[in-house]
Structure formats: C-alpha cells, structure tokens
C-alpha cells in the first residue's frame, strides 16, 4: 500500500486557529485586569491571519482544487467560501460577546478558546471530502458548542439547554456514524470521489446504500434543524447565552450546509432523484412549521429560533436544485443570513439584562425612544429576514427561488413565497412593538440604552453588509465562482 499523500498546506488556516485557541487559553491564565481586551485582540488577530492564509490558498483562480491526505481534505472554491464565512462569523462573534462576558463575568479565556475551537470544527467540516473527516469536524464543532451552550454555569436554563443539545447531538452523531458505516459497507470506501465512482457502475445502488444515505440525511437534519428533527432548537436557543445563540445559529448553518452541499453533489450525484425527494418533503415541512410556529412566540430568541428553522428550509431549495445557480444560491443565502441574523442577536444582547432577562417582546416596546440606533438596526434586520427589498434577504430568497424554478421545483418556490408572506407578520410585530407601541404603565421614563463599542461596530458591519449585498449582489460573484448572474 502506498503511503498517504501528506500535504499540510490546505490545513494552514485550521492550524493557525488551533494555535490561537491554545494561546488564548494559556493567556487567560496569566493575564489579569483588562484581560478581555487582550484576549479578544489575540483571538481576532489569529482569525484574521487564518483568513489571509485561506484566501491566499485560493490564489488567482479560486476554482482550482488542491487535495491532501489522499483526497480526505481539499482546498477549493467551496471550502474557501464557507471557511471564510466561518472565520468572519467567529470575528463578529467575538465583537458580539465582549459585552456579554463583562456583564455575566464569564471566564474569558475559556470562552474565546471554545469559540476558536468551534471555528476549527467548521473549517475541517467544510474542507472534508471523506466521511470520517466529516464526522471528526462535526464533532469538534459540536462538543465546543455543547460547552458554550451551558457556559452560564448556575443558570438553570443554560444547563438544561446544554443537556438537551448534547443528548440530541449524540443521537445525530449515531445516525451519521451508522449511515457512514452502511455507505462504506455498500461501496467499500468513505471518500466522496470514490463513492461517486462506484455509483457510476450500472446496478451499483442497493438497499444498504439507500439506508445509509437516509441515515446521513437524518444526521444532517438534526444539525440543521429540519422538521421533524428540530425539537431541540427553540429550547437551546432560548437557554444558551444570547451571544452563543447567535454564533450557533449562523456558524452551524454555514459549515453544515457547506458540507451537505459537497457530499450530495460529489459523493451521491447518481442518487439525486432519491435524496432530492427526501429533501423536497423536508423543505416543505420546515418552511411551513418554522414560520407558523414563530407566530405564537413572545420570546424574541425563540422567535428567531423558529425563524432559523424556516430559513434552513429556504436554503434547502437551492440545495435540491443541485446546479451552478443552486450552489451559488446556497452560498449567497448563507452569507446574507450571517450578517442579518448576527445583527439581530447583537440587538438582543444589547437589550437583554444580565442573565438574559429581557428577551421577550414586551422588552422591545418603545425601544425606538430608548435607543433609536438599536431600533433602526433591528428593524432593518427584521425586514431583511422577511425578504423585503433592497436588503440582502430579498436577494437571497430571489436566488434560491429562481434556482428552484429553473430546476423544475415550481411547487417549492410557490410554498416558499407563501410562507415568506406568513413570516412577514412576526417580523413586523417586532417593528410595531419598537415604534408603534408604548408600555401600559410608565411611571418614569425608561432609561436610555447604551450601545458598547464592539456591539456598535458589529451593528455597523451587519447593516452595511445587509444593504450592500441587497443592492450590489454581484459584488460576491467572484467569491462564489461567478455563478450569481441570473441572466445566464
């Protein structure tokens, strides 16, 4: 047997983030006083360095593919894009977390190290072209998130959320491992390219392989909160610290959708009819239940949880299309969702008191008088999530619906449009509370809300990106391979 091809170049960004996580963990033990500023600075510096290395791997032609470790890890346009999104999410999460760490008095070294290790899992997951490496990356991501979810030690809601997330995450892992074992038993390999080669042979499909693929989709369904595998999402989103919830909501979707897109198009293109039928049903259930369940929520974090479920359903439409436009639609939607959702959670963090007391809709009543900046930002993000032009959310939905129609899934596009109209109700309800409602009893004027510097920076970045992607969507064309032009 020939020795494995060892090439660490595609792993340089992952190595940089790993070293940064270890350095932050050690610095957290040594520094005292204003350690949060230094730890945040070191964390952001490491992430920026990793981003520079990652974009450097892309070179002049991001579509060039560089495989390593016998094809188990790859550097290509997909890993570059989703890896870059993961690093940007981590940087924005650090800005989002600084205020939470101060008021909650969390251990900052451990917190930042866990955020960085979660990012390591995202990078491994997006670059994995082998089922074993895929599971490894997913577990690095998940284990770190389990700890972050329960990071508010002593708070019952946070501990309960961490336990629920861990137990259901373990079930999801079981489905993925068992599915991978069945796929290996049917094909004799775990590498995506080799699985695809085996399936090209006539009669290669078998019940064993179809069951294995089904179990893999169930595992991905848990991680992406597809209905009916969404049960953990509202409770975990509500119980986890708000900064962690925002990180989890966008980071997990970015990495796992990138991995799902790769495995379906690179390992199982021959079984497209089978997995597209399953995703067709999951997309319908996810869009309908996610939006209608969000209507009944009074807690903004739970509302955003059901919103994230519905948003996952929209992204699946582009996955099902499985063509260049659908691939670009997934990329653009994930990028747009990153900014508008993290921006919304930045407002949640600013409004909430210590212990996340202050996340119900009642706490947003009259917010426009207490903090015009926060109310304006939250209004923009709600409109973007609803898909109102000229925001990024509108262009994102336009891309995925167009991809679905061109692939022949007109029914999915119609359901997507109708459920988007339903979603407008609960997004507008937040805006109405901020601008058009007043507290029933107001013996004294509510105190103005101060927006800390890092949170303000995050809000500015998110607002610029939300409008920028909505008005100039073609700016991202080169990054996603130049396939966003609808005229093609």
Structural description of this entry:
- This protein has 488 residues and is mainly alpha-helical.
- The chain has one domain.
- 73% of the residues lie in helices and 1% in strands.
- The chain contains 18 helices and 2 strands.
- It has helices spanning 12-30, 35-58, 77-104, 108-127, 131-149, 156-187, 192-199, 207-224, 233-239, 242-266, 272-295, 300-321, 324-351, 367-370, 372-386, 392-406, 410-436, 453-471; strands spanning 66-68, 73-75.
- It has a two-stranded antiparallel ribbon with strand order 1-2.
- A hairpin with a 4-residue loop joins β1 and β2.
SSE blueprint and pairings:
Blueprint lengths: L11 H19 L4 H24 L7 E3 L4 E3 L1 H28 L3 H20 L3 H19 L6 H32 L4 H8 L7 H18 L8 H7 L2 H25 L5 H24 L4 H22 L2 H28 L15 H4 L1 H15 L5 H15 L3 H27 L16 H19 L17
Antiparallel strand pairs: 1-2
Helix pairs in contact: 1-2, 1-4, 2-3, 2-4, 3-4, 3-10, 3-13, 3-18, 4-5, 4-10, 5-6, 5-10, 6-8, 6-9, 9-10, 9-12, 10-12, 10-13, 11-12, 11-17, 12-13, 12-16, 12-17, 13-15, 13-16, 13-18, 15-17, 16-17, 16-18
